[in-house]
Amino acid sequence: MVLLIAFALVAAACSSDDGTGNETTTTTTVAPDTTTTAPPETTTTTEPKLEHPYGGEAIVADDQEPPTLNTFVPGGDNFIVSLIGNAYFVGVQKIDGYTLALIPDVVESLPTVSNGGVVVNDDGTMTVSYQIRDEAVWEDGTPISGDDFQFTLDTILNPDLPIDKTTYEDVVSSDAGAKTFTYTLAAPTAIYELLFGVILPKHQVEGSDFVNDWNDTMWLSGGPFKFDTWAKGEFVHLVRNDNYWGIDEETGQTLPYLDEVTFKFIPETESILNAFKAREVDAINPAPSTEIINTLQALEPEGARVEVLAGSIWEHVNFQFGPGRLDRNPNSCNDNYNMRLAVAQAIDKTVLTDEILAGQVAPLSSFVDAFSPTLSTKAWDQYSYDPAAAAASYAAAVAETGKECSVVFSTTSNNDGRVKMSELFVGMFEAAGIPYENDLEDSSLFFGETLDNGTWDFGEWAWVGGAGLAALISNYDLFDPEAPPPDGGNYYRWGTEDSSVIDDATARFAEVRDEMNATVDDQELVALIQEGENIIADNLVIIPLYARLATAAVWEDEIGNYKHNPTNGGHTWNIGYWYRVDLEG
Fold first, then answer.
1. For the segment 67-81, what is each residue's pLDDT rounded down to a tens digit?
2. Average pLDDT over residues 331-340
3. What's the pLDDT tens digit per position in 214-244?
4. Could you tell me where the beta strands, DSSP code E, fall in 186-301?
5. Cβ proximity of 241 and 224 under 8 Å
6. CA Rg, the chain, in Å?
7. Could you give the angle at the alpha carbon of 36 between the alpha carbons of 31 and 39, nearest 5°?
8. β-bridge partners, 237
9. How would DSSP label each residue in 299-341?
10. Per-residue H/E/C for 521-545
11. Side-chain half-sphere of 343: how many Cα atoms within 13 Å?
12. What is the pLDDT of residue 49?
């Protein structure tokens, strides 16, 4: 539940996979309070059944620490920001962990053409209307209003702020009421369903230094918890928002149930597992592997519940096309298609899935498979593992570039699966006769300076897909030649102004992306989705590897109402509903 691309696609960092660290500062810590709390007053007219107890704390462990708490600024698209933000961010929509569908958050219903919330006008524009819940207020009791939506829009569109303005910049008019907000887009686009994933409290944020004031602290909460403390390198601590307006539909009880939530940052996977085994933490969402799954499932007789789901997190290797790649590897030949082809032919994706995930998932034929398999053209099936062919393609690249082409692989060093991948690559590239070197980094560096500055040669990370057709469409923004960072998400710098590859394919892809974002016609969208997929595959901008299993675990005898969400909604999507089972009775 973050901004447009951050809501639909979160750089991994994802699903407790990799993290970003921060400088350690001295911060006052808060001792856990495990005493029960009387239930907050309810405004319902009938006496709610006290089916779940109030009070206590939940501790969530993650190997990633946020670079910032501000989801709108660079670094705010890291998954951990969203995982923590699920406790206090408020916006139009969230993803249901049971149905994996978009559901309304601060609005009465999600606008659609059929319910009249979306209207395609005669002049070619499209108007979207929100009805904000009457009961929705900020933590200080101030009503959440149309003015907050308008202020959020104005903040996003501020030319002096490094915020992704994709689609928001197409708003041609808007109107704010006490509990309504309406805006008109210059042209129809399915992306509207992902707008306003996070809303800002105007009465607090207006006049502040938006980039600098909201990194280490958080604005007023509209969710079940409010920000308390961030002890850098250790934890983020949240406490109950007594003015939260949410109700448990099944019991009628006012939410949240818990008094507090702590997000502990534990950099290493093994340390997270040990903390969970020792019941020092209540819930984890570790990077999936067969060993981890087996370790966690062995704890089920002791009270743990392990959910292993098919996820929308898709791993991929990719090429950097900007000038920063030469800082990492002066012999980079990524601008040569035969070099990229040699890499594709040298990688045995089946071995990767067998060794890293014990064959529990099949290699991806396309990134579209991770979103909507029925739409996929299986575009990467044209490439197959063939060391001899890879050697021939590599020789052609050397001849065409006149360079001693080589590959330097960079990814995060504190993720077991990616370290294993780098080790497997050594033998694969050696078999193809391609000079190869591993240069892995701590996740705080890789997902910070390296990604932002494009200073890698051949890289690997994951993206997280989202719910709905709009999420798939948003995926194409990642390759938009017109959207390099910091304002855009094309970290690969394919076709950007400073790219080593600018050609007819990059020009056509930019057109496809624009056309895709200018229609809500399903047939047109499918045709554009498939054309764009084939452009990316034919030009080997990336190589999809596999969609990861999504694993989460909770001590079920301690935390109730926990439900893993394998989408970018994250396993904290319903954190306001969690309660301490051990306080029952």
1. 999 999 999 989 999
2. 98
3. 999 999 999 999 999 999 999 999 999 999 9
4. 225-231, 235-240, 260-265, 283-284
5. yes
6. 24
7. 125
8. 229, 262
9. TGGGTEEEEEEEEEEEEEEEE--STTHHHH-TT--TTSHHHHH
10. CHHHHHHHHHHHHHHHHHCCCEEEE
11. 29
12. 57
- The rounded distance, in Å, linking the Cα atoms of 85 and 222 is 10
Model pTM? 0.66
pLDDT band at 47 (very low <50, low <70, confident <90, very high): low
Cα separation, 499 vs 502, whole angstroms: 7
**What is the DSSP code string of 28-90?**
-------SB-PPPP---SSPPP--S--B-EEEEEES-B-S-S-TTSTTTTSHHHHHHHTTT--
Q: Give residue 115's region: left, alpha or beta (phi > 0; psi -120 to 50).
A: alpha
| H or E element, residue 420 | helix 416-432
C-alpha distance from residue 488 to each of 73, 81, 191, 495 (Å) = 11, 18, 16, 13
Q: Is it the case that residue 25 has pLDDT exceeding 70?
A: no
DSSP strand pairing (10-11 vs 458-464): antiparallel
Tokens 């699903």 sit at which residue?
15
What confidence score (pLDDT) does residue 523 get? 80
Spell out the domains of the chain, with CATH numbers in brackets.
310-548 (3.10.105.10)
